Amino acid sequence: MTAAAPLTALVDSAARTVLLRGGDVYSPADPFATALLMQDGVVAWVGEEGAAESYARDADLVVDLAGALVTPAFVDAHVHATSTGLALTGLDLTGCPSLGEALARIRAFVRGSAVGPGGVLLGHGWDESTWPERRAPSLAELDEAAGGTALYLSRTDVHSALASTALRALAGPELPGLPGHLPDGPLSRAAHHAVRGAALGHLTPRQREAAQRATLAHAVTLGIGALHECAGPQISSEADLTGLLALAAAGGGPEVFGYWGELGAVDTARRVGAVGAGGDLFVDGALGSHTACLHDAYTDEAHTGAAYLSAEEIAEHVRACTEAGLQAGFHAIGDGALGALVAGVRAVADKLGLERVRALRHRVEHAELLTPDQIAAFAELGLTASVQPAFDACWGGESGMYVERLGAERARTMNPFAALLRAGVPLAFGSDAPVTPLDPWGTVRAAAFHRTPEHRISARAAFTAHTRGGWRALGRDDAGTLVPGAPASLAVWAPTDLIVQAPDEIIRNWSTDPRSGVPGLPDLTPGRALPHCLATLVNGRSVFRTAS
Fold first, then answer.
1. Model confidence over 32-57: pLDDT tens digits?
2. I want to staple 535 with a disulfide (CB 3.0 to 4.6 A). Which of 8, 121, 466, 492 is the partner?
3. Among candidate residues 152, 160, 151, 163, the one with its CA nearest the CA of residue 127
4. pTM score
């Protein structure tokens, strides 16, 4: 038998042909595979140990997996890399238990920061719906904690923010007249966009690059091999997106695919190197900020949220993208927004032809409060649902934020993953980081153990949505699965027992029988530790490995 090197030999390996053997390989090509051969960045063979030795004789490098699990690398189909990096390296209020603790963390952050004159401090993640006080800080409380600093703190859903008086001044004298302005509270809608623009506009190129590097470096430690960056004039900037794409193209981290969310901006999307004119092109806002557009009023506020685009505007954008052969996409959360989106896309299908629209796999980000008719329309129109299961883990359940905003009956319809799959709607999973953290196995768990049982899907289906689903959303059917001819973008996980989880007991009993030929995945039962990543490879090259 040919001698094998440990996994650490993968670091900076320039070997053209690499054989991984002695583990478990998650592949539809062979459910009992223990070995995988990579050649020039492509999967060349997958199989069992008995045949591995014949490939070992000719391989440049043979690696002993020592029982580790090899899977396709994850794809996070919705991120904001700069904001995520700022949360990773700056003030992160995610999970903060109270208003008082949030103010204490703000004071400590300001004291420890060396911001220069005219500089801005940024933070993220506060969520007053989880605090005993049930309110956000007043402007006076925020200013006291900020000590005169220009401070921007996005809410966990990134659709409203706290802004100190100094930052409000940077946003300009027109701020008080903008929709969503509150003199003593969080800012939303156009007022939020204004203060966010002022805050991000004061980031130096060095700060921006450092934040992006932090996100890319963190992603590969989690087995993530590709990210979909959702950019746009209301989210970031052209310079932010082009800088990120250039940084990713230099290698050493995950692949990054950019989306530019600006109405009608087909030429801009192409000029900045985006793969689609969409992502966070807002049809509405978010439930937490009471800006998701609903058919019926919120339970806790007497209005229906914010409608940012009409069906006619949506149709014109989809028409322009379809005629240009470019994927369109929209952010839509509430049933009111999703109704307008379906009407707009259907109008284009009636004009240009259904198959022409379906061929581009236009995307809908979030798609949370869907009606049965809207789910059927997604399937008919070939729309991809780019969704975030961690939203349900954070805000679902009988006493979560969804119930508070919508009431129990509507809340039970949120994030209907099983119904989408039954209808044949393609799913692509993501995090919307920094709204929820980069956490791929946690995302798979959240879908498999949805807080509303009828919306649960199997772990296998959830894993597919977080791997192959992200590639299919890009129009790539050749990636995201470990079969010969596919890109060798993969992750290696510490040895663990493998099982087959399914939401239905009959299916579970059948699929755990070895004769079923269904490959197993780690046990994701809530409370169990999630898999630990040992190495990540992108197109056959090592971009991360543990030190030992």
1. 999 999 999 999 999 999 899 999 98
2. 492
3. 160
4. 0.89
